[in-house]
Amino acid sequence: MKFRGTLAGRITLVCLAVAGIAVIVAGLVASRLIRTTADNVLQSTLAAQADVVASQLDETGIGNRLGVGKVADVVRGQGISVVVRRAGGQALGDGVAVQAAGKLGLDRNHSGRVTVAGSQYLVETRVVGARGAAFALVLPARNAQATQRALVRNILLALGIGLLVAALAGFVSGRLLGRPLRRAALAAGSLRAGRRDVRVPVQGPREVAEVAGSLNSLADALAVSEARQREFLLSVSHELRTPLTAVTGFAEAIADGVATGPDAVRAGQTIQREAVRLERLVTDLLELARLGADEFRLDIAVLDLAALVRDCAEVWQLRCGREDVRLSVSAPAGPVPVLADARRLHQVVDGLAENALRVTPAGAPMVFSLSVSDSAASLAVRDGGPGLAPEDYPVAFERGVLNARYRDRRPVGSGIGLALVHALVTRMGGTLTAGPAPEGGAAFTITFPLAASTATVPPPAADLG
């Protein structure tokens, strides 16, 4: 049972099945051909012998008992009976042979097969001379059947050898084809055990080589993914440790009575602020985890993107004013209907704005810019901060990448905010891209198709800044 379940076993069985079908078909065709060919060969041989005998006898020989006896002795050793009819006389010979010759007829030259008493006979008749003398050579058909059986035995032997060769060829082919697959299976087991340095030689048939190449690519992808996960966990740990340290320190100060009066108030405010920061971080982590689940719900409906931008701008005008950052808003005066989840899209804009304000220095601008084309609406959140290196824009939405690269040089977030907003936009059917901004910093652009109810493009944008 184990052998049948292996690739070598299955290839061997397939080869045997194909060879067996070929044997059956070849046997059926060959048996018919053998039967026909054997009959034709024996009939031709008998006809040739009859012609030779006819050339040696004439009416004198037919009438001469000695001449006929010599002929009978020659052919009788081959299992052939001789029937003779002298001119004007009756046919003489073995009873069954006379009946067979009589059925075919001794009046002219004949070749044929006749049945007497349930047995078949090959008969050749020849007329000798002009006065009607004739003879016949009669051969039982069982002689032909014996020849057929001998030929069939030889063919069956050859076909049996062919089956054996097919089985050996299938087994060897299966082993050769299964060897690279077995190596791939061992490599997969090593990957499952945690090794990421295993590689499979890319060789063998194209399909097997593709399996090996895919397994090697999987090993590389796993190594990169795990490295990024480690970096992400390190960044998240760093982000968690900072507020936890503050909360723990100020809580101990209050508990020990070190912070009293106004100091206790300030300690309580710090604890509250850091607790809110922790809550936001944990919420983002949970949201990002839930995005990958099927039960994550979105309330998709038609909403006015221009109105949503103006609502967000009212909140961020105050926050930007406290940081001495000028917020400029550009949006069409009319409605811009798109299909999205209003609450989640508001969360996305807030996340991008918070990210932009964090890196924008005092006196520099921050921009909300909504533009509309024939089929889509695009909202860009731009900042006048330091921006990103060109190679960092393609990886800006990968968890923890920007945090790991910039946390020692500028204020950074938890490393999951951009990943979260990108996942939210994608789940809502939009796109989110990153690139340099005209203000000198970075621009993050959200694009949604216009809702089907939109018939015209809204009027040109109005500067609300």
Automatic annotation (TrEMBL):
GO terms for molecular function: ATP binding; phosphoprotein phosphatase activity; phosphorelay sensor kinase activity. The chain crosses the membrane at residues 12-34, 155-177. One of its GO terms (cellular component) is plasma membrane. Keywords: ATP-binding, Cell membrane, Hydrolase, Kinase, Magnesium, Manganese, Membrane, Nucleotide-binding, Phosphoprotein, Protein phosphatase, Stress response, Transferase, Transmembrane, Transmembrane helix, Two-component regulatory system, Virulence. Residues 175-227 form the HAMP domain. It catalyses: ATP + protein L-histidine = ADP + protein N-phospho-L-histidine. It is a multi-pass membrane protein. This is Signal transduction histidine-protein kinase/phosphatase MprB. The lineage of its organism: Bacteria, Bacillati, Actinomycetota, Actinomycetes, Pseudonocardiales. Its EC number is 2.7.13.3. It comes from Amycolatopsis mediterranei (strain S699) (Nocardia mediterranei). Its main location: membrane. Its cofactor is Mg(2+); Mn(2+). It holds the Pfam family HAMP. It is found in: Cell membrane.
